From TrEMBL:
This is CTP synthase. CDD domains: CTPS_N (cd03113), GATase1_CTP_Synthase (cd01746). Residues 546-556 have a biased composition (Basic and acidic residues). Catalyzes the ATP-dependent amination of UTP to CTP with either L-glutamine or ammonia as the source of nitrogen. It comes from Salmo trutta (Brown trout). Residues 2-272 form the CTP synthase N-terminal domain. Belongs to the CTP synthase family.
Length: 569
């Protein structure tokens, strides 16, 4: 097993997740099996109880793990399926060590950070790295490990120490360190400054880790003199200083690393047995990133939610929209609307904000209402859905219905949305309906079923505490709503569609979590097709796109599903 540790310096949120994903992608394109682990130094057991404003969205895995959004990047870039243990937190490590101590596993010894916590970290990484994340069940050959936060943080010290020891346990040929740092460019002088990177690398080396590659995040490409200065002061060759300048699309980052010889260096440094031949996977990736720069037609979607001030709160939703827009050859414009701004109260208190929000909504080609918890902004979401229904605007959303819910009105006598039996209201973490669940289609004429390739069922990821009250199903069906998808037992309403509407779909699950750049999520794909006015022709052609909208030159094989055999990573 080869281990690649990605650390970060100077500031958090520097782009370690995208760089770790990109390194994994270019290695996978060489035919290697790659897995990924994200380490978060916070004490929380998982990300499930975070506010979206803290760390962005909570990403949900097949096994129900609520994890950091970077695992979403790994899955999308590498086309793999991770598990909850691929996200390691301080809380998980301390919990496992304390449980061992309570069982008497340490035979009366004093339990300390070194060696017990550091050993537990190393054992976790070694064990998790061997678990297959591909459909073929093959054990991975390379494990990319991202250490969250910034070098020097007090929270991450046990992890840095663990990897200092780890590099000697697994031997030099099996471990390398990529350090991501910032090269700021103050507007006053316009000069690229290397001192923050020098200090960051000095601190890392002082803690016992020497970077093999220094990836410099910067606004503009690194000047040669700056590269040589970093090389001289940070004890690396100039070829080991990699420029990761700002680019128009994150899909260009793997190509940026490839062009600077990152694959060649890692393969030589870790003695990886690969051939440096032309790689089909990267060719397709380049085609996709080039296409994003050439789009002429536009499509706009209003995203009506509670956390719109911080785009990472809807990271997977935004990516799913981008994947679908790219698949139909349209440039995407997302209009972020705080759902509370659509409510009558805002008209009284801040009329300008109210009218701006409604103007955004009315000018959009389609409407998307993602899920959310709590009362705030719910009325605004319902207003947006009602408007989309009456004006026949393409709509996709989590199931919100204009009636009472036990989430918002616990004493309601006629609830349409009810608490699920397995939910424990006394405890917040991990008590929802989580992970991959099967939805059975009950209708042959369902639009969503056709978009899924006329499948009899789909497996999608869930994260919710509440469900539609099945006793009131007939009331909705009398008014043109159809519950076209249900769970295996037929008790839970999973998918709803509306008659006499271009595209009005509500789902109980989160389809965005399984969207991939070259295989967009069908519900989002349907929304974008409808918003661009292409849905009916797409369905009439047997769910085929026109040749110019596909990633293949062959017009006889142009549906996303048939293409995927060729494009599969």
């Amino acid at each position: 097993m080869k281990y690649i540790l990605v650390t970060g310096g100077v500031i958090s949120g520097i782009g370690k997740g995208i760089i770790a994903s990109s390194v994994g992608l270019i290695l996978k394109s060489c035919g290697l099996h790659v897995t990924a682990i994200k380490i978060d130094p916070y004490i929380n057991i998982d990300a499930g109880t975070f506010s979206p404003y803290e760390h962005g969205e909570v990403f949900v895995l097949d096994d129900g793990g609520e994890v950091d959004l970077d695992l979403g990047n790994y899955e999308r870039f590498l086309d793999i399926r991770l598990t909850r243990d691929n996200n390691l937190t301080t809380g998980k490590i301390y919990q496992s060590v304390i449980n061992k101590e309570r069982r008497g596993d340490y035979l009366g010894k004093t339990v300390q950070v070194v060696p017990h916590i550091t050993d537990a970290i190393q054992e976790w990484v070694v064990k998790q790295a061997k678990i297959s994340v591909d459909d073929d069940g093959v054990e991975p050959q390379v494990c990319v490990i991202e250490l969250g936060g910034t070098v020097g943080d007090i929270e991450s010290m046990p992890f840095i120490e663990a990897f200092r020891q780890f590099q000697f346990k697994v031997k030099r040929d099996n471990f390398c360190n990529i350090h991501v740092s910032l090269v700021p460019q103050p507007s006053a002088t316009g000069e690229q400054k290397t001192k923050p990177t020098q200090n960051s690398v000095r601190e890392l080396r002082g803690l016992g880790l020497s970077p093999d590659l220094i990836m410099c995040r910067c606004a503009t490409p690194l000047e040669n003199a700056v590269k040589e200065k970093i090389s001289m002061f940070c004890h690396v060759e100039p070829t080991q200083v990699i420029c990761v300048a700002d680019v128009s699309s994150i899909y260009k980052v793997p190509l940026l690393l490839e062009d600077q010889g990152v694959v060649g260096y890692i393969c030589q440094r870790l003695d990886l047995p690969i051939e440096m031949r032309a790689r089909k996977m990267l060719t397709k990736w380049k085609e996709m990133s080039d296409r994003s720069d050439r789009l002429l037609e536009h499509v706009s979607v209003a995203l009506v939610g509670k956390y719109t001030k911080f785009s990472d709160s809807y990271a997977s939703v935004i990516k799913a929209l981008e994947h679908s827009a790219l698949a139909i050859n349209h440039k995407l414009e997302i209009k972020f609307i705080d759902s509370a701004d659509l409510e009558p109260n805002t008209l009284q208190e801040e009329p300008v904000k109210y009218h701006e929000a409604w103007q955004k909504l009315c000018s959009a080609d389609g409407v998307l209402v993602p899920g959310g918890f709590g009362v705030r902004g719910t009325e605004g979401k319902i207003q947006a859905i009602s408007w989309a229904r009456k004006k026949k605007k393409p709509f996709l959303g989590k199931m919100y219905l204009n009636a009472n819910s036990t989430e918002f009105h616990p004493e309601s006598k006629h609830p349409v949305v009810i608490d699920m039996p397995e939910h424990n209201p006394g405890q917040m973490g991990g008590t929802m309906r989580l992970g991959k669940r099967r939805t059975i289609f009950k209708s042959n004429t369902s639009i969503l079923r056709k978009l899924y390739g006329d499948a009899e069922y789909v497996d999608e990821r869930h994260r919710h505490r509440f469900e539609v009250n099945p006793e009131l199903k007939h009331h909705f069906e009398e008014r043109g709503f159809h519950f076209v998808g249900q769970d295996i037992e037929g008790e839970r309403m999973e998918v709803i569609e509306l008659d006499d509407h271009a595209y009005f779909v509500g789902v109980q699950y989160h389809p965005e979590f399984t969207s991939r750049p070259i295989k967009p999520s069908p519900p989002y794909f349907g929304l974008l097709l409808a918003a661009a006015g292409k849905l009916q022709s797409y369905l009439q052609k047997g769910c085929r796109l026109s040749p110019r909208d596909t990633y293949s030159d062959r017009s006889d094989s142009s549906s996303p599903d048939s293409e995927i055999a060729e494009l599969k990573f």
